[in-house]
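Progress narrative, work stream C.
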Amino acid sequence: MRSLRYALAIVLISSAMVFLSCGTKNPPEGNKKITVVTTLFPLYDFTRSIAGNKADIILILPPGVEAHAFEPKPADIMKIDKADLLIYTGKYMEPWAQDILKSTTSNKLAVVDTSLSIKLARLNPAHGDSEPDDRRHHGSYDPHIWLDFTNAVKMVDTITEGLCKADPGNSDFYRKNADIYKEKLSALDKEYKKALSGCRKTTLIHGGHFAFGYLARRYGLEYISACKGSPNSEPTARKMIELKKKIKENDIHFVFFEELLNPKVSEIIAKETGATLLKLNGAHNVMKDEFQKGVTFLTLMEDNLVNLKTGLECK
């Protein structure tokens, strides 16, 4: 049903675009920036850091909207259809993008899937991580790949190649900016490693959905979340008992909650265990005021490190 809705929207939008373009001249290619649509805030921030003023970068996800609940409107589909480049995280994070790509009428739209060079971790690994399997249902794999900064470096490389193909005349500019940004990501990774290597606690308790698995794995932390699946799902009574038992047995004093999501579960856990709440930002999206102030992925991750050092009682 959703695929049919998107397909109908594309047909109507394309008809309108043909009608509106009659008698209108396109601007000269030499004066025209490429238009890039990105789906999540990390991709938007990576892309604007690489492209600078050489491209028009659009974040299709409205500031303040929770990423997992987002469904594009006809106006969003039109933006994608008119763009030169669509950059997304992959089918496990943005399943709606698959429907649009199957229905798009654009003959110029190039698509960049930033997860293709990255080994995805399974949400319920039985024998360790494995490569993604297209036969498995959506939700089997953890799509929050950008929270391992070594993955973020790979994503930057993939985005850079997409920009260079779409706009070869500015390839040197894009590659130079990408190298600078990758150095910042590598420095951030070293900062995390150093800061989190001497902590009294190594267990990260999160009252939300399973969003920080890559981060925890990278820095040798045990990560326990209240829910494995959708951010809107409710934890089982068994899971709540397990979390509270873990907190008491390990004398844990802090519980993390996630940006843009109701912290109800974290609040319940904190109230029943005497723990203190701390925010951990998955950076899927940002609030409107943060977006207007120009917040960056790097600053969000720096803020996360401050709270992780507090929550894990680091030196």
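Work stream C, second folded protein:
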Amino acid sequence: MEAFAVTKYVRMSPFKVRRVAELIRGKDVDAAISILHFTPKAAAIPLEKTLRSAAANLSNVYEGASKIEPDEIFIKEVRVDEGPTMKRFRAASMGRAMRIRRRTSHIKIVVATEEF
């Protein structure tokens, strides 16, 4: 059994989010949540919210099935894609305008139970 959660348009560069996503890839959900909770990076907050949502989706989708233990759930896939880039301009020297790119991210986390 598996379920997923998607968070779109996170106002953070995908490069920064991927650095934190590497810490939790393939781990148990409980271990991943504790890792993200104590990681001093801003990208840990949207990743933790998405992970909690994916775990809740798994328990809600398969409500009729037997009770799912939290230690049986693991992260099957973590994907961080690039979202749309907002273009802004800032004053530069000699009367010029320099382009600022505000990057966004789309986060998708797939969780699954260990099938034996």
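The mean pLDDT is 92. No further action is required on this item.
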